[in-house]
């Protein structure tokens, strides 16, 4: 077989990482990919090179003679790529969208990454919704963001990569004088007959409205119709006081004067959060952002689902396909 004209650096990195670990599960964890995806990349590289790189058995992984011979060349190629990217401006700031001010999960990941990478600038942006931010990622105007990956169109997801970060319990925000405001928790059944606002008509947050529609379906809860977007805290409170509609949120939603937030229960609906970036993008600070997200998820149990929880099947597939997720 003739030598390939081009070898994807991702395949080389898969090969080198497995060669260093001699263990596919550990190598997959280092690369933040599913083990099956890593195995596919290694086999694809073997096909392209026309040789076996590893001897695999149920108990161990070892390099073949060809693997031993090619390893130093693959390592050198990756070092050269890293040097090239650094020379081409990889020291530029990493632009990270936090969606909205006050969302603690996103802020904690960014702050941890800043601590881990003091030599890199990570700049916060606030694009308010993954649907909008995804377009900015693909256009190169953003580098990373957070949100519900399964809520994006398949054609958009094809140009992006993601790493599950957290299952956020959902809540409703109500005016303090709402008849349901006295409940310490909000059973979903208690919202039957209510009209709940979840961003319908806001093109920036279509993934959130879709999640709400799935949650409300069959429960007698009406999705509030599209309305002009209220911009600013004062305008938001004015509209809420006029409509008196509960607002779908997450438990960590920043508090507003004159309102109360009540966690949803029976079941506990979850908002799945992924770290999302443009496919193929490399930046030293992105690696630290991903490590920080994985560390915090493990430390805080962010990817552990409550027993009495609700999550659409499409979201479970996206979140569960990652080795860091636990159910």
UniProtKB/TrEMBL annotation:
The keyword Transcription applies. It comes from the Bacteria. InterPro entries: LysR_HTH_N, LysR_subst-bd, WH-like_DNA-bd_sf, WH_DNA-bd_sf. Gene3D superfamilies: Periplasmic binding protein-like II, Winged helix-like DNA-binding domain superfamily/Winged helix DNA-binding domain. It holds the Pfam family LysR_substrate. Residues 7-64 form the HTH lysR-type domain. Keywords: DNA-binding, Transcription, Transcription regulation. Belongs to the LysR transcriptional regulatory family. This is LysR family transcriptional regulator StgR.
């Amino acid at each position: 077989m003739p030598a390939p004209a081009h070898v994807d650096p991702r395949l080389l990195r898969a090969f080198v990482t497995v060669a260093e670990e001699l263990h596919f599960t550990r190598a997959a964890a280092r690369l933040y990919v599913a083990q099956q995806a890593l195995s596919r990349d290694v086999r694809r590289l073997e096909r392209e090179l026309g040789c076996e790189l590893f001897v695999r058995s149920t108990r161990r992984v070892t390099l073949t003679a060809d693997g031993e011979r090619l390893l130093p060349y693959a390592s050198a190629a990756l070092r050269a790529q890293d040097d090239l990217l650094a020379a081409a401006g990889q020291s530029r700031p990493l632009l990270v969208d936090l969606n909205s001010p006050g969302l603690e999960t996103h802020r904690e990941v960014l702050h941890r990454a800043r601590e881990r990478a003091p030599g890199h600038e990570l700049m916060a942006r606030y694009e308010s919704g993954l649907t909008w931010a995804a377009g900015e990622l693909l256009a190169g105007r953003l580098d990373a963001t957070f949100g519900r990956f399964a809520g994006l169109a398949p054609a958009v997801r094809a140009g992006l990569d993601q790493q599950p970060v957290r299952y956020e319990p959902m809540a409703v925000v109500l005016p303090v004088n709402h008849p349901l405001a006295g409940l310490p928790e909000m059973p979903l059944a208690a919202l039957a007959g209510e009209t709940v606002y979840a961003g319908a008509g806001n093109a920036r947050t279509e993934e959130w409205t879709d999640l709400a529609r799935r949650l409300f379906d069959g429960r007698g809860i009406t999705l509030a119709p599209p309305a002009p977007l209220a911009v600013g805290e004062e305008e938001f409170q004015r509209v809420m006081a006029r409509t008196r509609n509960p607002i779908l949120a997450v438990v960590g939603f920043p508090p507003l004067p004159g309102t109360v937030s009540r966690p949803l229960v029976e079941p506990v609906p979850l908002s799945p959060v992924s770290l999302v970036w443009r496919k193929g993008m490399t930046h030293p600070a992105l690696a630290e952002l991903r490590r920080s997200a994985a560390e915090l998820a493990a430390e805080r149990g962010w990817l552990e689902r409550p027993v009495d929880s609700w999550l659409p099947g499409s979201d479970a597939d996206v979140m569960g396909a990652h080795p860091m997720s636990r159910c």
